[in-house]
Amino acid sequence: MIQILEKRSPALNIRAGHLARQLIQQEGFHAKQVDILPGAAGGPKGIGLTGLDQAIFGSFLPQAKQRRFLVGSSVGAWRFAGILAQGEKLGPEQLAELYIHLPFHKKMKIAEIEKISRDMLAGILNQQTQKLVDHPDYHLTIIAAKAQHLFQSDQRLALYGSLLGIVGSNAIARQHLNLFMQRVICQPKNFPQFKIKDDSFKTHYLNFNSDNVADWLMASGSIPGVTPAVKNISDAPQGAYRDGGLIDYHIDLPFESQGIVLYPHFSDSITPGWFDKMFKSRKSNPSNQARTLLISPSQEYLARLPLGRLPDRKDFTLKGMEPQRRIQLWKQCVAESQRLGDEFLELVEKQRFAEVMQEL
């Protein structure tokens, strides 16, 4: 009796900007081409990429060692920080383990959320901040937002009044966010610096060190109304610093790449800012993504996950989702992500990117 095996749908979507497509069609896809890797904000969705991160950083990029920029906001920066501090295997595993067991509940006060978030970050860094700052192969670049005017305050009336103003201003045009916040790009000092071409946002370039990098990572993930703005960062200008995803949610930046921007992402599309999620027309700038190779879970892969999607922050407070049940489902999602990494490495080995990639 002949057994007919079910053919599994691809686990990955592969999309590429026009210059990345040309380069891959001409030369194939190789580690030596990659000079920038973005990491999006998105909370626990990031741990759904654990297996893909391990494959990229553990097996693929070491094929051509060179200094690369890792550009992240919020959990994207935390993912990269863990890899630099604890290694390409343990870093993603530790982030996933800490996020899965985060003791969050909906009645928590902001100060309590701040504490458990800082404890989680300490577990990710594991007292290896100097290793992160001085890493020979990777240049961590943390994106945060410097709050302006009333948006600097965590007082409820001022904060929520600012957020209403932000929503309304952003609905008119994205660049109006400049009235409320400015981009901060923070990175180690003793290496060539990451720069972007000028865009519609005022951008501050600052440097972090082993003493203040934890504060910058905390600032990059500080969601207004959930955790307070981070203030009094040592060796930094006075100010209130907030979540980098407010401006750069999925990192739609004018990168100055000379090769390929390899983007392991939890979505097959790029939404510029967090407040752009409500506008389907707010899509990435094609010129910004010309050299991007976007790697993301396919819809077929997501449908097979226990939740039918990646982990989400709302799972902590979802009605009927008891903590132990959430932990079990998230663990299954992280375990399944090894399939993403395996498929990526198989595509590299067989050099099949040119035949499977679609237009970004």
Low-confidence stretches: 1-5
The CATH topology label is Cytosolic phospholipase A2 catalytic domain
Query: What is the molecular shape?
Result: globular
How many helical elements?
A: 12
Structural class estimated from helices and strands: alpha/beta
How much β-strand is present in the residues?
Answer: 15-25%
Rg calculated over all Cα atoms? 20 Å
What is the count of structural domains?
1
* Number of extended strands: 10
Distance between the first and last residues' Cα: 45 Å
How is this structure best summarized?
This protein has 360 residues and is an alpha/beta fold. It has 12 helices and 10 strands.
Question: Could you explain how this protein is built, in words?
Answer:
- This is PNPLA domain-containing protein.
- InterPro entries: Acyl_Trfase/lysoPLipase.
- It comes from Acinetobacter tandoii DSM 14970 = CIP 107469.
- This protein has 360 residues and is of the alpha/beta class.
- The protein has a single domain, classed as Cytosolic phospholipase A2 catalytic domain, CATH 3.40.1090.
- It is built from twelve helices and ten strands.
- Strands 1, 2, 3, 4, 5, 6, 7, 8, 9 and 10 form a ten-stranded mixed beta sheet that branches.
- Helix 2 links the parallel strand 2 and strand 3 (68-73).
- Helix 2 (50-60) runs parallel beside helix 11 (338-350) and helix 3 (75-86) crosses helix 4.
- The radius of gyration is 20 Å and the shape is globular.
- The protein starts with 11 loop residues before the first strand and ends with a strand.
- The relative contact order is 0.21.
- Mean pLDDT is 95; it is low at 1-5.
